[in-house]
Amino acid sequence: MAQAAIPQIVARRGGWRAALRRYAHVPLLTPAVGLTVAVFWVCMAVLVVMSVYPFLAAGTPRLTLAAWQRLLGDPYYWGVVGTTLRLAFVVTALALALGYPAAYAISKIQRPGWALAAYVVLFAPILVSVVVRTYGWLLLLSNTGVVNYLLRAAGLVREPIPLIFNETGIIIAMVHILLPFMVFPILSVVGQVGGDLKEAAMDLGANRWVTFRRVTLPLTAPGVISGCQIVFTLTISAFVTPFLMGGGRVQILSGLIYRDMEAVNLGFASVVALVLLALAVVILAASNVLARRAYRRAEVERA
Amino acid sequence: MRPGRDPVRLALLAFLWLVVAFMLAPIVFTLVFAFSDASYLIFPPPGYSLRWFAKLFEQRALFAAAINSLVVATAATLASLVVGTAAALGLVRYRFFGRELLRTLFLAPLIVPRIAFGVAMLIYAVVLRRFGGLDSLFLAHLMVTLPFAISILTAALVSADRSLEEAAADLGAPPLVTFWKVTLPQIRTGLAVSGFFAFIVSWDQVETSLFLVKTDNMTLPVAMFYYLQRQQDPVIAALSALLIGVAAVGAVIAVLTVNPRDLQRVLSAGGR
Amino acid sequence: MDVDVELREVSKHFGAIVAVDRVSLAIRRGEFFSLLGPSGCGKTTTLRMIGGLEFPTAGEILLRGAVVTDLPAYRRATNMVFQHLALFPHLTVFENIAFGLRLRREPPSVIARKVDGVLQLVDLPGYGGREIHQLSGGQKQRVAIARALVNEPAVLLLDEPLGSLDLKLRLAMQTELKALQHRVGTTFIYVTHDQGEALTMSDRIAVMNLGRVEQVATSQEIYARPRTRFVAGFIGEANFLDGRVAHAGPDGVLVAVNGLRVRAEAAPAPAGAAVTVSVRPEHVKLGVAADGAANRWTGRIEEVTFMGAVVRARVALDGGPRLVAELHNDAAAGLAPGAAVAVGWAAGHTVVLAG
Ligand SMILES: Nc1ncnc2c1ncn2[C@@H]1O[C@H](COP(=O)(O)OP(=O)(O)O)[C@@H](O)[C@H]1O
Ligand SMILES: [Mg+2]
Predict the structure, then answer these.
(1) Which partners does chain A have (≥3 C-beta pairs < 8 Å)?
(2) Is residue A23 part of a domain?
């Protein structure tokens, strides 16, 4: 056969069936794209516009940075940002301190029935409304509530100690509400830390603490990081629990938004909302860098 | 060393049960207060009665709010499942330009603080003159539940066996029939989990709903939030007791029907 | 003879990868046709394009004379037995097999009769009520074949269907599958990378390499007269010697290899062309057995390996090239490394390959 007879490959036109196949994903994705763009993304755009052009306010709207200047120029608002972040740090740290050993312990339970029970108890509160759980903490922590009663009955205090309408109450309730989101990511990685690796480490003469620090901890780091990410971002944006537990005496960004919405100050509320959003994005991006590094280390260890 | 006697292990387990007690405490004591005789918050209750349940059933507004919540949560759940399944199919089963971008576009709402989205939604609803309606509430909740459904169903479809779909097509099943008879049975768990969580999230949504509801047309958690700001009588405890009962039933159903592993995956992914 | 499936210059590209490269085939009605080649050579892709699960980048596919190039799988009269079977785990054996019939809205009585019939055919009578996970590997295999066959396809496509079975079961299923094909008379297109499997079962084989079809022929012909070096090396074993055609005429062919002149019966190239000479180890005779052979030289035994029924010997010819000979172990007595020995083979066993 002559070499010259070999034809060049030319893609067929393929007709309507081929065209249909090429665009088969379009009808599937259109509803989701349409909704997400038309509702969510337009909303975000509206928020940005509102922060510099408060078009629903009385009078003729005009382009202004007044709301931004007010927020960024006033040390009070910087204080609110500080409180928001501080609370989130404390809540995250406490959730980790409770959640890590708890997840570790669940993975150590030998009877599957008990493991499941622990599992359900940690998961089920999610099904109970945040409002209800916050209310439960009000009942427990108020001056005439359960904890102060027990403290007095035990003779530990004479006067009730204030546990609500301050940061203590917010922290306790937030840790309770977000603990499942710390436990489960960790649980999903502790389960994977095989006994083999640990035994190998022990064989090599590492004692328990060293084994934990050198083997278990790096391997569970991805779970810890994603748990911390979730808890942190959920804390800075939480409203109901800090608002009810703080009783208006602790101001954080979400409370600021609520105050300005009640006062129909949409421009300023938009600015605060955008600041909150920016905080969440920056924190996630920063911790993702950390997470990626931890994942790579965990992969190396596992290999 | 026998594991049973290992002191470190015992200490860990003891700690776990303390955490469990911490998790259960507010729920248990809410139940106690629901049966309190007092009209104010006092522990231990001076006596026990059912009067707050009786008073609860007189609260028309709470009842109407519960109906609203039920309607919105059901609609948001169904819409998330239908739209989410279609989108997940599009993302998983086809290769096209801009696929990663779309994925980001869909999942972005998960990052945005709910209350910030609530503000934006209110402004948008006012602009469109839809403020106070269940429709804007539904759309707001859908934006919160949809990303979640998409991420769970995407994972479910990735692990579903593609060759079964090809086998069905090979045996003569057109795409819709293939989806119904072969794909759907394989992603049942994913659908159950995402439906379950979509419902819970919508049902318990305060931040996105807060600014969207009118005082005479609320959702249940928002109504409870406002009630708590006004008064603290045990009516809310009685209502909470009922909701806890419903949640307990939900937990039992979840445990019986959903593989704990799937549940874990959802929760670790920040399903909230 | 009727042609059931025809491929005309079919190519399939996945991005930069050319999975199938200008393949043309004509597969006859009732034929057991195999696509044979190493892993990654494009067999599965070719089969999937015939079944409508993949669509060509170029070229046309015809099924019983009709162009089906762009027709989706569910509109084609082909059925496939998948590499990993793809049985529906949520359906019983009966429902798996009835799947295609139900889609064609056959009445229940017909479905029941056909399913029973095909279960009988694959030797699984009464297995309809079983769940898929209750079956052994061989039984699953049969269900997959039954599920495809029950639809009475024009062509049955099989993608390495025996790959996951252990050796013994695989050999048994080979015989059974061939017998089954004989009974139902359906055209089978069978994909495999196992040359033994292809040689045993096929009426004709297409040997593929790097997306191209290298040769299409019967088992015997592929073995005896491979057309390319790849085919000769992939099917069975061969000694290769590079040389040049010295003489080609009606009386025979002479190929110059180093100092040797190798006799053959025919050559694909004229005198002067560079060629490769191939000869199978079992055709290479040693000692007295080489007496009178058209090609006969002397050499020295380098190595002898006992392999049970046969013995392999590596011999260095005096002219330089090395050859492997394979003999029955009773003909191998007295062979020892270092011994001088006569080496030879018949002109008819020399295969001259172009290039
Ligand atoms: N869907 C696909 N996407 C990209 N490359 C593919 C795809 N399917 C097959 N290929 C590539 O095409 C070539 C042929 O594959 P295949 O037909 O499966 O070979 P075989 O069945 O002979 O082992 C391989 O290089 C393979 O990697
Ligand atoms: Mg293959």
Answers:
(1) B, C
(2) yes
Quick check: C64 contacting A, CB < 8 Å?
no
The answer to whether C57 faces chain A, any CB pair under 8 Å, is: yes
Angstrom distance (rounded) from CA C243 to CA C321: 11
Q: Is residue A60 part of a domain?
A: no
Which of A231, A31, A9, A208 lies closest to C211 in space, CA to CA? A9
Measured by CA distance, the residue closest to atom 2 of ligand 1 is: C14
Q: Is A24 on the interface with C (CB under 8 A)?
A: no
Check if C155 contacts B (Cβ < 8 Å): no
Sheet of strand C340-345: strand arrangement: C285-286, C340-345, C295-306, C310-317, C322-328
Q: What residue type is B178 in one-letter code? A: T
Taking contacts as CB-CB distances below 8 angstroms, the residues of chain A near C59 are 12
Residue A263 has a CB neighbour count (10 Å cut-off) of 10
- Using the predicted structure, report yes or no on whether residue C92 has a pLDDT greater than 80: yes
- Cβ of C16 closer than 6 Å to ligand 1, yes or no, is no
Report the distance separating Cα A292 and Cα A227, nearest Å.
14
More confident residue, B265 or A221: A221
Tokens of residue C27, six digits: 């597969």
Instruction: Please tell me whether residues A105 and A30 are part of one structural domain.
Output: no
| pLDDT tens sequence across B145-160 | 999 899 999 999 998 9
Q: Are residues A234 and A294 in the same domain?
A: yes
Geometric angle at alpha carbon A189, from B5 and A134, rounded to 5°: 90
Identify residue C314 by its one-letter amino acid code: R
Cα C192 to ligand 1 centre (Å): 14
Q: Which of C45, C193, C194 to mutate to test the pocket of ligand 1 (most atoms within 8 A of CB)?
A: C45
pLDDT at C288: 83
C206, C232, C258: which is the final residue of a domain?
A: C232
For the domain with range B59-238+247-270, which CATH number is right: 1.10.3720.10, 3.40.50.300, 3.40.50.150, 1.10.287.370? 1.10.3720.10
Q: Are A263 and B103 in contact (CB under 8 A)?
A: no
Predicted pLDDT of residue B206 = 94
pLDDT band (50, 70, 90) for residue B106: very high
Tell me the per-residue pLDDT of C167-188, one tens digit each, with 9 for 90 and over: 888 898 899 999 999 999 999 9
Q: Calculate the average pLDDT of chain A.
A: 86
Q: Kind of pairing, strands C32-36 and C187-192? A: parallel
Nearest-atom number in ligand 1 for the CA of C12 is 12
User: Max alpha carbon distance in chain A (Å)?
Assistant: 106
Looking at the structure, tell me whether residues C209 and C327 fall in a common domain. no
Q: Is the pTM of this model over 0.95?
A: no
Between positions 93 and 152 of C, the ones with CB within 8 A of B are 99-100, 103-104, 147-148, 151
Q: What are the residue boundaries of the structural domains of chain B, listed by start? A: 1-52, 59-238+247-270
Residue nearest ligand 1's atom 24 by CA: C40
Q: C51–B174: do the CB atoms touch at under 8 Å?
A: no
User: Does C25 lie in the same domain as C170?
Assistant: yes
Per CB distance under 8 Å, which residues of B are interface residues toward C?
Answer: 161, 163-164, 166-174, 177-178, 181-182, 185-186
Residues in chain C: 355
Give the pLDDT mean for B170-178. 95
- How many domains would you assign to chain C? 2
CB C157, CB C79: distance < 8 Å: yes
Taking the C-alpha atoms of residue C314 and residue C317, their distance in angstroms, rounded to an integer, is 10
C209 lines ligand 1 (CB under 6 A): no
Q: What is the DSSP letter of C276?
A: E
> How many CB atoms sit inside 10 A of residue A160's CB?
16
Interface predicted TM-score (ipTM): 0.90
Kindly give the distance from the C-alpha atom of residue C45 to the centroid of ligand 1, in angstroms, as a whole number.
6
The pair of three-digit structure tokens given for residue C190, joined into one six-digit string: 């069978």
Q: Give distance in angstroms: CA of C40 to centre of ligand 1.
A: 6
- Smallest Cβ–Cβ distance between B87 and the set A32, A149, A227 belongs to A32
